[in-house]
Structure formats: structure tokens, C-alpha cells
Write a structure and sequence with these properties.
- By secondary structure, the chain is of the alpha+beta class.
- The chain has 4 helices and 14 strands.
- The chain has an 8-stranded antiparallel β-sheet, with no helix packed on it. A 3-stranded antiparallel β-sheet has the order 1-14-12. The protein has a 3-stranded antiparallel β-sheet with strand order 4-10-8, with no helix packed on it.
- α1 (about 5-25) runs antiparallel to α2.
- The protein is elongated.
- The N and C termini lie far apart (about 45 Å).
Length: about 220
Amino acid sequence: MVRDGIFYALGFCIAAALLWSVTQSFLLTAIPVLLALFFLWFFRDPSRRIPSGPGEIVSPADGVVTEADWIETSAGSRYRISIFLNVFDVHVNRSPVSGMVKSVDYREGAFLNAMKPESGLLNEQTLVVIDAGGYDVSFKQIAGLLARRIVCKVKPGDRLERGQRVGMIKFGSRTDVLMPADVVPRVRTGMRVKGGSTVLAVLAVGSPEAHSQVASVRS
């Protein structure tokens, strides 16, 4: 469990005790007690089985894939996957690959509905770029309509392992993953994924078969 859940729950338990001492009302006291239980549940941090295959890029978050497609950027063609987290999903973020953190860029912004495409540009967000050894993979924590705090615990120069916990976004949000264009997708729009354990894509390195598979997916 993320320790923030303990702090929130403790605050509501204190409120419940005060309400009981003043009102002796089971109904009023039950409200902060239920909220305390909700926060303990919301800040859960389950262990995950991390895939170990070569070139595998795992999901940085729990949620539903809302977009999976190749896009053009200033650095060239990339494959982007967007994952929407509702308030009931685990909100702990994990590193999609092993590697060295090249940059961490936090940007203030709006709090639009994270389901809207423009939220990836306009909302408050943190972009983390990881050098995975010969190629870069980046993930973006995007605040949503309810989210009001992005927690990112990494900094440039940190060494990360695939599936390592790197932070969280509180109360509904979106996470984007940007990877090399030369990947073989393993998920599609509408699929539910789990942070650290679901393989989003596999880097197509070396074999002509892998590259032909990428070409067939993109055509």
C-alpha cells in the first residue's frame, strides 16, 4: 500500500471519532469510516509478475487502452499507446522498460477529462524519457478531471528496472507510452492492461520475420 492511503485513512478515522463523541450517531460516523476504507483500498499497491522477455515494453499503468497507433513526431515516427485510468484502477505507475532516465519534464496545465485527445497536450503532465539501450521509451503521466497531483519519484540519471514503481497519479488520469515505431503491438484499443505485467509491444530487432510482422500490422 502507498503510505498516502494510511495518512488519508487516519485523518478520516480521527474525524469519525470526533463525530461520534459529539453526535453519538452511527450514520454520521459511518461516512468518514467508509471514506477511510475507500482510501485504504484506493492506494493499494499489489505486487506484479514482471515479464522478462527481450525487447518487451510493459504497461506503466492499470487501465483501458484508449488509443494505439503510429504517430509522427519531431523526432520521427513513433508508436503511442494511451491508457485511461478510472478512479477504481490501481494508480501506481511503473517503468515500461529497464534503462537510464534521460529527462523528467513537468509541465503545469489544465484538468480536462483525460479521455479527450487534447488532454495529452493541455493537461498538467510529467514526461519521463528512458534510454533503454539503443532506443528511447517515454511515458507521460497526465492529470485528469479529478486528478490534482502527479507524483514522480525519478530524476535524470536514475537507473530503472522494467516494472519498477516510479510514482502515481491520484484519482483518475491517463498515461501515454511512446516507443520506437519498429515494435510489434501486443494490445489493441479497448483492452484492459495491468501496470508492470501486461506487455504492450515488443521491439522488432534483428529478424526479418519480426520486421515483416510490423509491416503487416501497420498496413
